[in-house]
Amino acid sequence: MNRLRIIPTEVDLTAIRAQGPGGQNVNKVSSAIQLRFDVRTSSLPEDIKQRWLQATDNRLTPEGVLLIKAQRYRTQEANRQDAWARLHELLARFERAPTPRKPTRPTRGSVQRRLESKRLHSHLKARRRPSDD
How far apart are CA 90 and CA 66, in angstroms? Predict the structure, then answer.
């Protein structure tokens, strides 16, 4: 499969302060990275854009902008690489079209077993009813 490339100028990387514990360092250093990628205006092929925009992903805004917040590591550079890796992972997920589902039919044996089970269950319930004597 041909690997698609994301043009770096289409991605906006911003350094932000990380959340969570970290002592005094967390309040001073902007080590987290927020990656913004506008899927609608990107140079990706239309079919990939459509699959990406139709996905139920809470990182995608209603305007079609993907937001990834990378704050796993202590350094800004490591978080930047993590954000890029996660973006490429998402791209790989939508790169290939999903295989269409082939409708299947139940086997003759499974149909017979189901009907036999229904017949036995019906007979059992009919025996519980009072007789019409």
Answer: 10
